[in-house]
Amino acid sequence: MPHAANDGEATDHSRLIEDFGVRIGRAMGWPPMAGRLAGILMLSPAPMTLSELQHALGASKGSASEMTRLLMTHGTVDRVKVPGVRQAVYVWRDDAWAGCLHHQLDQTRLLLELAETARDHSGRLAPTQRTRLRDMHAFYDFMVRQLEGVLDAYKRRLRTPDGHEPR
């Protein structure tokens, strides 16, 4: 990872990476190391190899690999093969936040499918349990529709020159 110009910048950079670890990690339900990795890649001016990420995190190769896979699954990081270079590199996606939202939408759709299946097989349950399953279905149906709208609005916003919602 490129080094900061002076010790003050390096300290600020390290604090920011730690802050990412705590805040993004907690908010996204990720381990703190995944949050730190997100911060490292987001702030890196160039793609990084797994060895570079391992060194920057002070982690084992297995842990660094596991955290990169987690971030790839969540739509924020890509693994890229550079022609002529033996090792793949990892890069923060330009559309990482849309990727993250798309991952949340996919997970919510899976829960909606579960709610539909459960509701369809609830005929012999007591009214209280049927109501709970109906409520679950209503919630996830609502959430899928809302997340689809949010994702569409966010993508439209990204396409505007100033980053503001088109009128």
TrEMBL record:
It comes from the Bacteria. Residues 41-79 form the HTH iclR-type domain. Pfam families: HTH_IclR (PF09339). Keywords: DNA-binding, Transcription, Transcription regulation. SUPFAM superfamilies: Winged helix' DNA-binding domain (SSF46785). InterPro entries: HTH-GbsR_regulator, Tscrpt_reg_IclR_N, WH-like_DNA-bd_sf, WH_DNA-bd_sf. PANTHER family: HTH-TYPE TRANSCRIPTIONAL REGULATOR MJ1563-RELATED (PTHR38465), HTH-TYPE TRANSCRIPTIONAL REGULATOR MMPR5 (PTHR38465:SF2). This is HTH iclR-type domain-containing protein. It comes from Streptomyces luomodiensis. The lineage of its organism: Bacteria, Bacillati, Actinomycetota, Actinomycetes, Kitasatosporales.
